[in-house]
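Z., the sequence and structure:
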Amino acid sequence: MMNNISKSQVCKVSPGTIVSGKWHKKSYKIIKSLGYGATGIVYLAESVNGYAALKISENSMSITSEVNVLKHFSKVQGSALGPSLLDVDDWLRPGSPQPVPFYVMEYIKGESFLSFIEKRGKEWTGILCLQLLSDLERLHQEGWVFGDLKPDNLIVTGPTPKIRCIDVGGTTIQGRAIKEFTEFFDRGYWGMGTRKAEPTYDLFAVAMIMINAALPKRFSKVGKGEEQLREIIRTNESLRKYEKVLLKALSGEYSHASDMRKDLVILLSQANTPSQSSRRNSQKKAKSKSPQPSAVRPNQPSKKSKGGFVETVLILIFLTLAYVLYIYGQLL
């Protein structure tokens, strides 16, 4: 006699379990859990074609919604926001009175966003967010908002670092109420906007992702959220250089992800371009190190000091151009 499985246990599957589709007859061996959310649990599974990510949910409506989102993502040219959809089926689980809906998607192997930043350095935050903003712009143009945007849902693949999203459960059609959210990245929690699905909601979350990269230990709201976030940005060295972009994103001043991306590109370029004051200091140092007039023939400048200064400027220009071209090369 089979024991009935309660509704709360429908999504729980032990490693080694074989999940077989009722309609397509494809089988998947569960390896381990990859994560869970409000709509179900995602598992690493092995199939005849290799590893895949399999999501089980007790709610067939949520499965249908997410499958539709993944299908739509596959039609958005150049977008790498969500994984590829591989299979959709029902599982006749022993002990369950009803078929258990599931879908299978591409298993994106990589490193978590915050782990990557911790290992590679905080300067990667801006570069990866440029990539993210490019994908969000395409998504927004198609009439969708990602919704539950946070580092937990971001993976960095390689060997050339590329940001990918691994959970589309919170993706919502623009104009509707956000389906899923995480407080730290939700503007409603900070008292800085509504939970209406619109591009500004996602861009607020991008700003909070950048803050989270600088301060991995998330904090709670104390007092007025806007004042608290402004003070944190102002007093943190790694955030202060992004202050202009962060404040505009948090206050909803960017209507499009492309606008935020343009400003971020400018900030990153300026951060790697020598300022006027530094150039003046270089000139002063070059002059101070030049030989005394008595050691040089009249009306003939020191070739060594002049050549050294020109070489320094050329190197700085080359490094700046290389950095800017590197950013564009990763994202275009």
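Confidence is low (pLDDT under 50) at residues 275-279, 290-308. The longest strand covers residues 27-37.

Let me know what you think.
H.
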